[in-house]
């Protein structure tokens, strides 16, 4: 897997971690370089300070030409450093060198005014009275630097040896005359013990800092990417789930992620509106098509049906010497045809049925008509009506709508349950709310609830709600249904007519 294919929940904390580690490494290298430079400058300063002290101490010995005193003078600080380092007691080695265990790290030379070696900390390596320039190589270069630098001031020769520093201090008499030159030749190896100690301290401090910052950086990086990851997960649901089922607790902010979240939220709202619009259009087209089909079929059936019923009525009125068996058969046919007529009549919803304005008596009739079904099923009817004056709505349609909804609520309720009917009206609208504690209506059933023959309870022909919907549409009203595990509620809103219905 390539790095670019990793999730930002990994890449961002990983990037923060790498930045912390790189920053710690760069700071550590910078600190170590600075520490090395400081140690080097400190070594040079200490050497120059030691050289100044030795130069003043050597002046009397050079004035008296006391070589032994001069030798003891330059060896004293070397032996003291050897003791301070915890090494063995200073001894004279086989090559005649005294002092530290490794004399090559520190070399002290005393030159006379002619640049001849007067005395040295390593006599075998630097014999007396030998010209410094005659030793060749770097020593000849050093002799040239000393000759050029005749101002009587100390100086440092840094670039003669690649791994050593030469500090040159003039030895002056009390009257300022130059008696000779003191050369302190120090190796870079003297820096390593102190520098290694500094390295250990810097590494330890860096590890402690990383130990504290890495978990914090990982946590902070993950926290920064959590809104983006959540947004990505929500976006992946688009297309595989319907917009109404996608519920996301999106990040709310003014940064880039917050702006994308806001646009995504708007997109979801637009998709939900589009879904509802498409669903309404499909339902309307389906209902219109079914309505046209059923109306045509009903009209075609009504014509022969009316003729058959008229024939039966004529037979009953004018038939003579009728056979009892035939009468029973005719009665059975008549009841069947009447039932067919009722079913066909339910399919024919007139555009406007002329009727008087809705009155309190019409509403009480509805209560009376539904009461036997309520009692037969052992239900309790909660009737809440605040309407006491005529309402400019056609009573026939409103009565049919309320009766259908109440009978549907009774059929859906379990024995011993409750059906509630609430009726209200104001200057502009008539409101009706009918609820029952029956079976929960699922989302799939809700989408086809007002289609003909969509009844799943097994009672009736499944046309009541469809007829109710058609009547409410003709009255320019609305019907809404909500259902949960405890109750199902039908809410009807009808605009009042400008004039009284007649």
Unreliable residue stretches? 89-95
- The average pLDDT score comes to 80
Helix-strand topology string: HHEEHEEEHHHEHEEHEEHHEE
Shape: rod-shaped
| Number of structurally distinct domains | 3
State the fourth-level CATH superfamily of the largest domain. Answer: PAS domain
How many strand elements?
Answer: 12
Q: Quickly give the CATH architecture of the largest domain.
A: 2-Layer Sandwich
Report the helical percentage.
40-55%
Given the helix and strand composition, which structural class is it?
alpha+beta
| N-end to C-end Cα span | 79 Å
Tell me the number of helical segments per DSSP (H or I, 4 or more residues long). 10
Oligomer: single chain
Could you describe the largest sheet, including whether it forms a barrel?
5 strands, antiparallel
The CATH class designation of the largest domain is Alpha Beta
Percent in strands:
5-15%
* CATH topology description of the largest domain: Beta-Lactamase
| Main β-sheet, spatial strand arrangement | 2-1-5-4-3
What's the gyration radius in Å? 56 Å
């Amino acid at each position: 897997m390539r790095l670019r294919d990793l999730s930002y929940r990994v890449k961002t904390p990983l990037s923060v971690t790498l930045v912390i580690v790189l920053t710690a490494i760069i700071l550590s290298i910078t600190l170590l370089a600075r520490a090395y430079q400081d140690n080097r400058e400190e070594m040079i300063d200490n050497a120059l300070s030691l050289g100044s002290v030795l130069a003043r101490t050597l002046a009397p010995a050079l004035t008296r030409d006391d070589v032994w005193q001069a030798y003891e003078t330059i060896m004293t600080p070397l032996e003291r450093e050897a003791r301070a380092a915890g090494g063995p007691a200073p001894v004279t080695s086989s090559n005649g060198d005294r002092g530290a265990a490794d004399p090559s790290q520190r070399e002290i030379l005393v030159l006379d005014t002619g640049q001849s070696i007067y005395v040295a900390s390593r006599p075998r390596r630097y014999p007396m009275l030998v010209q410094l320039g005659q030793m060749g190589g770097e020593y000849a270069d050093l002799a040239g630097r000393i000759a050029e630098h005749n101002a009587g001031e100390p100086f440092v020769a840094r670039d003669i040896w690649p791994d050593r520093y030469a500090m040159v201090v003039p030895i002056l008499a009390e009257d300022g005359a130059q008696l000779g030159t003191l050369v302190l030749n120090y190796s870079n190896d003297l820096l390593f013990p102190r520098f290694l100690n500094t390295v250990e301290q810097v590494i330890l401090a860096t590890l402690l800092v990383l130990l504290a910052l890495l978990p914090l950086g990982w946590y902070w990086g993950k926290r920064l990417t959590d809104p983006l990851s959540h947004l990505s997960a929500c976006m992946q649901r688009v297309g595989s789930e319907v917009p109404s089922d996608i519920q996301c607790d999106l990040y709310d902010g003014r940064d880039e992620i917050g702006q994308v979240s806001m646009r995504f939220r708007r997109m979801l709202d637009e998709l939900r509106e589009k879904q509802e619009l498409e669903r309404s259009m499909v339902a309307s087209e389906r209902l219109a098509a079914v309505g046209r089909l059923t109306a045509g079929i009903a009209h075609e059936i009504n014509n022969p049906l009316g003729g058959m019923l008229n024939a039966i009525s004529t037979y009953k009125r004018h038939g003579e010497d009728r056979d009892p068996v035939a009468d029973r058969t005719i009665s059975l046919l008549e009841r069947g045809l009447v039932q067919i007529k009722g079913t066909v009549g339910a399919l024919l919803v007139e555009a406007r049925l002329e009727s008087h304005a809705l009155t309190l008596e019409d509403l009480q009739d509805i209560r009376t008509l539904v009461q036997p079904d309520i009692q037969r099923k052992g239900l309790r009817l909660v009737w809440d009506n605040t309407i006491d004056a005529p309402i400019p709505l056609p009573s026939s349609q409103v009565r049919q709508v309320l009766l259908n909804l109440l009978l549907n609520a009774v059929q859906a309720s379990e024995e011993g349950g409750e059906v509630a009917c609430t009726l209200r009206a104001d200057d502009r609208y008539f409101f009706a709310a009918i609820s029952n504690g029956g079976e929960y209506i699922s989302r799939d059933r809700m989408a086809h609830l007002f289609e003909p023959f969509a009844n799943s309870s097994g009672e009736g022909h499944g046309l009541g709600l469809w007829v109710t919907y058609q009547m409410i549409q003709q009255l320019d009203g609305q019907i809404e249904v909500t259902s949960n595990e405890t109750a199902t509620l039908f809410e009807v809103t009808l605009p009042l007519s400008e004039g009284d219905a007649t």
